[in-house]
Write a structure and sequence with these properties.
By secondary structure, the chain is α+β, with helices and mostly antiparallel strands. It has eight helices and 13 strands. A hairpin with a 4-residue loop joins strand 8 and strand 9. It is flat.
């Protein structure tokens, strides 16, 4: 049962005055209490610009060439709308992956997506397709999958405690067709977890992959952190890869040498230290 948190409607003035009756955001957060899922639905000026140029109301789906989709673990990817689906921000879509398919939420349909597509083309990055919109049974399967992933994390932690491994289980991800289960973890050193994999395979009867990730990627996957600037952390909101950051970058910008002040929620030096480094 979905619960909606009402928010005041937008009042558009100036060049958007004609849209005053149509632009409203009835729910900023869509909360599924049963599975403890929160989905953001944010509307920015760039999206208003895009929709105004295309003559489309904010709450109407449109046919766009490329979209940005938010997947599990705060991973955002660009997908091609090959089949001309009518889509809007916040819609669930089933997209193609390298091994199967997966479901995510549309977060952007504006010109920013086209700019990212240009960068992908320059980098020879393969852009996969949007397959379809999910039906009610697929949405039910998706919510059940997310609930089962929480059970996988709990069970894996029990096994880790039995084997006394020095590792922290971050999250789990079922492939949409349930043919593969990936468990993400952090550890200070390499671990021989062959017996753990066998136990997980016997328990969940599927192909198991244990993937070690960095502290930065762990913070990105967990998400919902606010940095000292008061904004959502860069890794969660827009970063797709991580650059190596050292104290030399901070010294060049005449920042404090106090590591605790320069560290982010992940315990590593803040990614934003590198943003303006080239200007010094």
């Amino acid at each position: 049962m979905n619960t909606y948190i009402e928010a005041p409607s937008y009042t558009i003035t100036g060049q958007y005055a004609d849209y005053e009756k149509d632009f409203s955001v009835p729910n900023i957060f869509e909360v599924n209490k049963e599975f403890n899922i929160i989905r953001r639905n944010t509307i920015g000026n760039s999206q208003l610009d895009f929709l105004k140029r295309n003559g489309t109301k904010l709450n109407e789906p449109i046919d766009v060439g490329y979209i940005e989709v938010l997947m599990k673990g705060n991973i955002k990817n660009i997908y091609r709308n090959t089949f001309g689906l009518m889509l809007n921000i916040g819609d669930f879509v089933i997209v193609e992956t390298d091994t199967c398919c997966d479901m995510g939420t549309i977060t952007n349909i504006t010109d920013k997506v086209n700019a990212k597509v240009s960068r992908c083309n320059c980098s020879n990055v393969k852009i996969l397709d949007v397959l379809r919109k999910p039906d009610s049974s697929e949405l039910e399967q998706y919510y059940k999958k997310m609930a089962d992933e929480q059970e996988v994390v709990a069970k894996t932690k029990e096994y880790v405690k039995v084997y006394n491994f020095d590792m922290k289980v971050t999250e789990a991800h079922w492939q949409f067709d349930r043919q593969k289960l990936t468990v993400f973890f952090t550890a200070p050193a390499r671990i021989d977890f062959r017996e753990l994999v066998k136990d997980l395979a016997r328990t969940f009867r599927t192909r198991i992959e244990l993937r070690q990730i960095s502290a930065r990627e762990e913070a990105k996957r967990l998400g919902d952190f606010a940095g000292p600037c008061g904004r959502e952390t860069c890794c969660t909101s827009f970063l797709s890869s991580f650059n190596h950051v050292t104290l030399d970058h901070a010294r060049t910008q005449m920042l404090s040498n106090n590591v605790s002040k320069l560290s982010g929620n992940c315990g590593r030096l803040k990614c934003c230290i590198k943003f303006e480094y080239e200007n010094y």
